[in-house]
């Protein structure tokens, strides 16, 4: 078993959300993530490869497509795109080729932009 707290490694990802309930419903449906609520404005997620959370703070950080891009891996890119759109996400950049694979970008209902890639 490895220690989850390794010096100078990314340990947790926290993203803003404009709608916690819609964000939970989206990621649970599209990717099977699970959640732990910590009050009405914060929810932690698990099952994403790294733990993290979503925070709704009207006076704090806002979702944006201008910050770091979080990229998920998929064994089946077409199926992942269908899951994203079926769960209420919107495709912001259709599937494209890049050296090493293919990917698409999407916006979640909370306003964040993420991407999904595959090497097959």
Description:
The structure is a single chain. This protein has 120 residues and is of the alpha/beta class. The protein has a single domain, classed as Roll (2,3-Dihydroxybiphenyl 1,2-Dioxygenase, domain 1). The chain contains two helices and eight strands, in the order E-H-E-E-E-E-H-E-E-E. It has helices at residues 20-31, 77-86; strands at residues 13-16, 34-37, 42-46, 52-55, 70-73, 90-98, 101-107, 113-118. A four-stranded mixed sheet has the order 1-4-3-2, with helices on one face. A four-stranded mixed sheet has the order 5-8-7-6, covered by helices on one side. A hairpin with a 5-residue loop joins strand 7 (101-107) and strand 8. Helix 1 (20-31) runs antiparallel to helix 2 (77-86). The longest helix is centred in the N-terminal third of the chain and has 12 residues, at 20-31. The radius of gyration is 15 Å and the shape is globular.
In short:
With 120 residues, the protein is an alpha/beta fold. The protein has 2 helices and 8 strands.
Q: Topology of this structure?
A:
Layout: E1 13-16, H1 20-31, E2 34-37, E3 42-46, E4 52-55, E5 70-73, H2 77-86, E6 90-98, E7 101-107, E8 113-118
Parallel strand pairs: 1-4, 5-8
Antiparallel strand pairs: 2-3, 3-4, 6-7, 7-8
Helix pairs in contact: 1-2
């Amino acid at each position: 078993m490895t220690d989850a707290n390794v010096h100078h490694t990314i340990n947790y990802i926290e993203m803003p959300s404009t709608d916690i309930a819609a964000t939970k419903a989206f990621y649970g449906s599209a990717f099977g993530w699970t959640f732990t609520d910590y009050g009405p404005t914060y929810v932690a997620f698990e099952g994403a490869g790294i733990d993290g959370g979503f925070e709704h703070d009207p006076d704090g950080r806002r979702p944006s497509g201008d910050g770091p891009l979080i990229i998920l891996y998929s064994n089946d890119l077409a199926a992942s795109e269908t899951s994203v759109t079926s769960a209420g996400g919107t495709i912001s950049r259709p599937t494209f080729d890049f050296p090493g694979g293919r990917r698409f970008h999407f916006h979640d209902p909370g306003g964040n932009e993420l991407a999904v890639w595959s090497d097959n």
